[in-house]
Amino acid sequence: NDGAGALIIASEAAVQRDGIYPLAKVIAYDDAAQAPEWFTTSPAIAIEKVLRKAGLKPDDIDFYEINEAYANVPIINARLAGLDIDRINVHGGGVSIGHPIGASGARILTTLVYSLIDSNARYGIAALCNGGGGATAMLIENMQVKG
C-alpha cells in the first residue's frame, strides 16, 4: 500500500490571526509502550491515557479510528479498553481502505475528522500501534458542530 498525506496543524493564535476555519481541535494526545511482542494491544493503553487526561469515559467518544495493522487490532483494543465496537472504524479500516504505512496516521485522522463532521458528532479518538511495541492516540473535537 503506497500513500502520502499532509495535514495542517496550527496554533489557536495562528488560526485567529489568519482567519482559518479549523475542522477539528486537538484536545489531548499520548503515547504508550510495552514489549514489542504486545504492540498490537498498545493502542488500548494510549487510548486510556488520553481519556484520563481529558476526563472522559469511552462512551463519551462518538467515533474511534484504530489503525488496522492487522484485522484483529481494533477488536482486541476495543475489548481491552472497553470501547463500543460499533463506534470503531465505521467507514472501514486499514484492511478495506488501505494501510499506507507512512501515511496511516494522516489517513485515519482525516477519516475521523470527516466522520465527526458528517455525523455532526463531537469527539473522536484516532490511535495506531507501531512494530516496536508503542502506540499513539489523539482525542479531537469537531469544530464544525452545528446546533
Question: Which features does this protein show?
Answer:
147 residues, alpha+beta, Peroxisomal Thiolase, Chain A, domain 1, 4 strands, 33% helix
Quick structural overview:
The chain has 147 residues and is of the alpha+beta class.
What does this structure look like?
It contains five helices and four strands. With 147 residues, the protein is an alpha+beta fold. It has one domain (12-142): 3-Layer(aba) Sandwich (Peroxisomal Thiolase, Chain A, domain 1), CATH 3.40.47. Strands 1-4-3-2 form a four-stranded mixed beta sheet, sandwiched between helices. Strand 3 (123-129) and strand 4 (134-142) form a beta hairpin. It is globular and about 45 Å long.
Task: Map the helices and strands.
Blueprint: H1 12-18, E1 24-33, H2 42-54, E2 63-66, H3 73-81, H4 94-97, H5 104-119, E3 123-129, E4 134-142
Helix pairs in contact: 2-3
Determine the strand fraction and express it as a percent band. Answer: 15-25%
Describe the largest sheet. Answer: 4 strands, mixed
Total separate domains: 1
State the helix count: 5
The CATH superfamily label reads: Thiolase/Chalcone synthase
CATH topology name, in short, is Peroxisomal Thiolase, Chain A, domain 1
